[in-house]
Specification:
The complex is a heterodimer of chains A (154) and B (787). With 154 residues, chain A is an alpha+beta fold. Chain A has five helices and five strands. Chain A has two domains: 76 residues, Beta-grasp domain (Ubiquitin-like (UB roll)); 66 residues, [2Fe-2S]-binding domain (DNA polymerase, domain 1, Orthogonal Bundle), CATH 1.10.150.120. In chain A, strands 2-1-5-3-4 form a five-stranded mixed β-sheet, sandwiched between helices. In chain B, strand 22 and strand 23 form a beta hairpin. Chain B is globular and about 90 Å long. In chain B, 59% of the residues are buried. Classes of the chains: A alpha+beta (154), B alpha+beta (787). The interface between A and B is large, with 59 and 57 residues. Bound molecules: FE2/S2 (inorganic) cluster (2 copies).
């Protein structure tokens, strides 16, 4: 067991973890933040995407001990003061989700993708989200949502 | 009546929880005292289990128990049943944990129950299973040949069933006298559904009340409860509660009763503690029922002028190692009955052999039988157009069933409800700019590029099914649906449906129906589903049945509510009920011709509670239930077109343009329907270009992860143009047809035809899907090398 301290959605946590524990399991099971989903075991799907120290990362590909000292945002922490993040709003407006399972990871990845890139092109969006799988939507409305949020200065 | 909500693209009411990470998926459930299950699975496709030593695993700290199949069998646990049994079918037991033989890679042999999932998985490595490996058979046609390894003693020659429709003599006569016969051998490859949410199950046995609660990722919790009671667990239905909360996609794969839905509750009962199992993706690849996997020989007979005369099709359908819940229905009642397509095809003979192999069971996957039918028929039609040197749309138009010929009886049992196929293709030619596409293609060809146009026109039978037909064909249940409308004394409404949403947006679309039917705000309507403890028995969601069957049940219940409210209002206003009208825009009831003499929806809701001033014979309360049995399927139809380019040097296919016009009848929420069509098309394109579930000869799954199984990704598509033509279905009061599968059914063949059109100038006639760069490159090389 190893002690780690990290900030998640603005709150500091100190916990003992097994060195092999995946960050996504830590977030879901130790912290009870189940908004971050798991959809594969080979780092292919992006369902587990979170923000860690300003970057979008697949949290199944990081060990909890590697996140010691990190500042993390999960889907639960994306809205501020009860206001949806523009990317969340855009997914809702554009019907960018169906079953919702890929959605938290998709939103977290997309939010970073468009940061400081209001004029992002369709091709750039498609390329940028290529590491996030969605089985329901065919991606079309996700692309539209990301463009909407980018234009809104997300 | 004027609708306020039906026909509007209302934003989905379920979305706020999903976009904020508050989805209630089974894997998110945690119960105090909960244990975790992990399952030891066979690494062999076919082997005798000589012995299982669990002692080391049991001794591990944190392990609570390890169980093997024999213990479950000894305790009276039954076989996972097949719920669709055509005449003369041969079946074999399917125990939740294998007892003396394993029959596919991934077959479960033991379960570890531990304090944490990490410990449970560690302990799996300490279980020692002695296997005696046997040879395996993978291909559905080879499985039926003499000398093939046998999967079950109970199923000789591995042929579980043979299902013919039509007569061999009749089609032979047509084939013999036709001007032309187009022949094709094809493989419709095996697919892995891969809903993004892996399956999961949590069970809690309550020894105090002798009741079992099971949370499971199912599209139809009532069917799971029925099968648990009837076949596997043997607990009385009234002591079982099955809950399917938010489910992260199904596409058919979550219809079926799976082994883990027996293992987990049984373990919970043994231990008196809640138990949870969550599938890994790797497990999903070797345990979720797969789709398609047909080996087919097909012949289309026609006149020189292009008139279709007959169709002759023989298919070997891979059932896998065990018959999954509805598996035999897919290559029979949902496949051969669609062979007429959009056409007048006077004579059809179709037959399917369902064969057992040492692979994961195969069952319904989005489209289920219908994509296979469309793929076969529309490939033949395309080849026919090429051989006759006719425009592929012209050839189709020549053979269409005409708009004035509905209801249309096909030679393969179906009676089509409505449609206007010529108009559908008019719309497609305009939306997709057919003339423009042809000009683009021809210009590109002149430059030496490989560019092709793919076209398809497809039929679907959705909304299963009239119970008499379903049971008559072999289904173990009728396929009706329930719908309850409960008006609370405050005028708020709870709706209980047996349908289940796992992405389709029922919480929105059903609220639109009920709100319009009752003239109340949508916000006042709550949709409750997916819990056998809160909803009446219902059959669930698959086969694009929810709107036409489940939605109709609700519309009928709403009518009953209106009738009762009108009676109460008439009584209180002291007029005849015949003199009253229910205003479905405002929910008020007033005397005909004098709108000021009225009662509001809330007035009458309260009156039904007070019950002190009700007409003679009218009971208090406002709750109505409907069990609706559809009178027919509905028949969505589609016209799709694609522009394809192939890189001559690499064989890489690019999808340049795609346009689709679908007739899914009346539409409740266009935004949701468009989402279904686009998502469905993407899945269909996946089968055409990328997805392939591959086994080696020993039965090892070679495409067992997202690294080896190519899923559609965001960068694989242009913006798709989708549009609709509406011919309302006369078989249900809403006029709706299914919308969930049409895109998938049509897209695979559209893209495949496009690829083959691009390759036609090279003299390449047919390549099986998926049209991967490797296959195309090899075909190009073979052609240029002159063989
Ligand atoms: S769960 Fe992390 S990438 Fe799939
Ligand atoms: S919305 Fe279901 S996987 Fe993306």
């Amino acid at each position: 067991m190893q002690s780690i301290t990290l900030t998640v959605n603005g709150k500091s946590y100190t916990r003992d973890v097994e060195p092999r524990m995946l960050l996504v399991d830590f977030i879901r099971n130790a912290l009870g933040l189940t908004g971050t989903n798991i959809a594969c075991d080979t780092s292919q799907c992006g369902a587990c995407t979170i923000h860690m120290d300003g970057m979008a990362v697949k949290s199944c590909t990081v060990l909890a001990v590697q996140a010691d000292g990190a500042d993390i945002t999960t889907i639960e922490g994306l809205a501020t003061n009860g206001h949806l993040h523009p990317m969340q709003q855009a997914f809702w407006d554009q019907h960018g989700l169906q079953c919702g399972y890929c959605t938290p990871g998709m939103i977290m990845a997309a939010a970073k993708l468009v940061e400081n890139n209001p004029g992002i092109t369709e091709a750039e969006i498609r390329h940028g989200l290529e590491g996030n799988l969605c089985r329901c939507t065919g991606y079309q409305n996700i692309v539209k949502a990301v463009a909407q949020a980018a234009a809104a200065g997300s | 009546m004027s609708n306020k909500y039906i026909g509007e693209s209302i934003k989905r009411v379920e979305d706020p929880r999903f976009i904020q990470g508050k989805g209630k998926y089974v894997a998110n459930l945690s119960i105090p005292g909960m244990l975790h299950a992990a399952i030891k699975r066979s690494p062999y496709a076919h082997a005798v289990i000589k012995g299982i030593d669990t002692s080391k695993a049991e001794a591990m700290e944190g392990v609570v128990a390890v169980y093997v199949g024999q213990q479950m069998k000894d305790d009276g646990i039954g076989s996972l049943p097949c719920g669709f049994n055509p005449p003369d079918i041969k079946t074999a037991p399917h125990m939740p944990l294998a007892v003396d033989k394993v029959r596919h890679v991934g077959d479960g042999v033991a379960v570890v129950i531990a304090e944490s999932p990490y410990i449970a998985y560690d302990a799996l490595d300490l279980i020692d299973v002695q296997y005696e490996p046997l040879s395996a058979v993978i291909d559905p046609k080879k499985a039926a040949q003499p000398g093939a390894p046998q999967v079950h003693d109970e199923i000789p020659n591995n042929v579980s069933f043979h299902w013919p429709l039509g007569t061999r003599e009749e089609i032979n006569a047509v084939l013999a006298s036709a001007d032309k016969v187009i022949e094709l051998d094809l493989v419709n490859q095996r697919l892995v559904p891969n809903a993004m949410e892996p399956r999961a199950c949590v069970a809690q046995w309550d020894a105090f009340s002798d009741e079992m609660t099971i949370w499971t990722t199912s599209q139809n919790p009532h069917i799971i409860r029925l099968l648990l009671s009837l076949a596997t667990m043997g607990l009385p239905e009234n002591k079982l509660r099955v809950i399917s909360p938010d489910v992260g996609g199904g596409f058919g794969s979550k219809i079926f009763h799976y082994a883990e839905e027996v293992i987990v509750p049984w373990a919970s009962k043994q231990l008196g503690r809640p138990v949870k199992w969550v599938s890994t993706r790797s497990e999903a690849f070797v345990t979720d029922a797969h789709g398609r996997d047909h080996v087919t020989t097909a012949k289309l007979a026609l006149k020189n002028d292009g008139t279709f005369l007959g169709l002759d099709v023989t298919t070997y359908a891979n059932m896998g190692a065990y018959l999954s819940t509805f598996a035999p229905m897919i290559p029979t009642a949902l496949y051969i009955t669609l062979f007429s397509g959009l056409y007048k095809l006077p004579v059809i003979f179709g037959e399917a052999y369902g064969t057992m192999t040492h692979t994961v069971p195969v069952d319904a996957y989005r489209g289920a039988g219908r994509p296979e039918a469309s793929y076969m028929l529309e490939r033949l039609v395309d080849l026919a157009a090429r051989e006759l040197d006719m425009d592929p749309i012209e050839l189709r138009r020549k053979n269409f069933i005409q708009p004035d010929e509905f209801p249309y009886q096909t030679p393969v049992a179906m009676i089509y409800d409505s449609g206007d196929y010529p108009k559908l293709f008019d719309s497609l030619e305009a939306l997709g700019d057919y003339a423009g596409l042809k000009a683009k293609r021809d210009a590109a060809r002149a430059e030496g590029r490989l560019v092709g146009i793919g076209i398809s026109g497809c039929i679907e039978a959705s909304g299963p099914a009239p119970s008499q037909v379903a049971v008559g064909l072999g289904a173990g249940v009728g396929l009706w649906e329930s719908g309850v409308i409960r008006v609370h004394p405050t005028g708020k409404v709870s709706v209980m449906t047996g349908s289940h949403t796992h992405g389709q947006g029922h919480e929105t679309a059903f609220a639109q129906i009920v709100a319009d039917e009752l003239g109340i705000p949508m916000e006042d309507v709550e949709i409750i589903h997916g819990d056998t403890g809160r909803t009446p028995f219902g059959l669930g969601t698959y086969g694009s049945r929810s709107a036409s069957v489940g939605g109709t049940a609700l519309a009928v219940s709403a009518g009953k509510v209106r009738d009762k409210m009108l009676k109460i209002a008439a009584h209180q206003l002291e007029v005849d009920v015949e003199d009253m009208v229910f205003d479905r825009t405002t929910g008020t009831m007033h005397v005909k011709g004098s709108p000021e003499q009225s009662k509001s929806f809330v007035d009458i809701s309260v009156a039904a509670l007070m019950a002190n001033n009700l007409p003679e014979g009218v009971e208090p309360g406002l709750e109505e239930t409907t069990f609706y049995d559809p009178s027919n399927f509905t028949f969505p139809n589609s016209a799709h077109i694609a522009l394809i380019e192939i890189d001559r040097d690499t064989g890489q296919v690019s999808l340049l343009e795609y346009a689709a016009v679908d007739d899914v009848g009346k539409v409740i929420n266009p935004m949701i329907v468009e989402g279904q069509l686009v998502g469905g098309i993407a899945q269909g394109v996946g089968q055409a270009l990328w997805e392939n579930c591959v086994y080696d000869e020993q039965g090892q799954l070679l495409s067992g992860s997202f690294m080896d199984y190519a899923m559609p990704r965001a960068d694989g598509f242009p913006m798709l143009k989708v549009s609709r033509n509406e011919t309302p279905s006369p078989t249900n009061p809403l006029g709706v047809k299914g919308a969930g599968e049409m895109g998938t059914i049509a897209a695979t063949i559209t893209v495949a035809n496009g690829v083959m059109d691009a390759l036609a100038p090279l003299g390449i006639r047919h390549i099986d899907i998926p049209h991967t760069p490797q296959r195309i490159w090899q075909a190009i090389q073979a052609q240029s090398n002159g063989h």
